[in-house]
């Protein structure tokens, strides 16, 4: 996977160490991430519908069993990326397909910057003082590589869509 800037051994260690502190409570920390996401961009709530039901509020969405399953899946993707830091390219096909799935439900590539901000916010809240500038930079690089792979799954759409 081409990330532009490969992760150094120290960055990989920082990511693993910080993820170990967060990954034990994936739903709890995922709720922090998605609460922040909906605070930053409330319109993203419209993308989440289960059984043709639109949620009236972020709180309703965040407590729905189907959405909690989505949170678990998101946290598993992060876990997979952390587990494969030395060989992110082995996740490339999976991430391309994940990008296609997100495009199919109406997610815009631009929304992933807000997701990235929300991920960093969650890590900062959960890690406290352990969330150093170096940890932030390492996670930003990893997230950038994941998003770049997902973007390759987007099909080219005609202008004006």
UniProtKB/TrEMBL annotation:
Keywords: Cytoplasm, Heme, Iron, Metal-binding, Mitochondrion, Oxidoreductase, Oxygen transport, Transport. The keyword Heme applies. InterPro entries: Globin, Globin-like_OT, Globin-like_sf, Globin/Proto. It is found in: Cytoplasm, Cytosol; Mitochondrion matrix. It catalyses: Fe(III)-heme b-[protein] + nitric oxide + H2O = Fe(II)-heme b-[protein] + nitrite + 2 H(+). The keyword ATP-binding does not apply. Belongs to the globin family. This is Neuroglobin. The lineage of its organism: Eukaryota, Metazoa, Chordata, Craniata, Vertebrata. The gene is NGB.
């Amino acid at each position: 996977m081409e990330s532009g800037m490969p992760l150094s051994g120290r960055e990989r260690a920082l990511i693993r160490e910080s993820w170990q502190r967060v990954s034990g409570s994936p739903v709890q920390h995922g709720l922090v991430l998605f609460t922040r996401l909906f605070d930053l961009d409330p319109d993203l709530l419209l993308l989440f519908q289960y059984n043709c039901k639109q949620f009236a509020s972020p709180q309703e969405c965040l407590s729905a069993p189907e959405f909690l399953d989505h949170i678990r899946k998101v946290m598993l993707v992060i876990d997979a990326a952390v587990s494969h830091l030395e060989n992110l390219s082995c996740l490339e096909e999976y991430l391309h397909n994940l990008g296609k799935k997100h495009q199919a439900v109406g997610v815009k590539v631009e929304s992933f910057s807000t997701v990235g901000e929300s991920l960093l916010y969650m890590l900062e809240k959960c890690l406290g003082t352990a969330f150093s500038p170096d940890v932030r930079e390492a996670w930003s690089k990893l997230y950038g590589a994941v998003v770049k792979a997902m973007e390759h799954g987007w099909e080219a759409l005609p202008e004006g869509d």
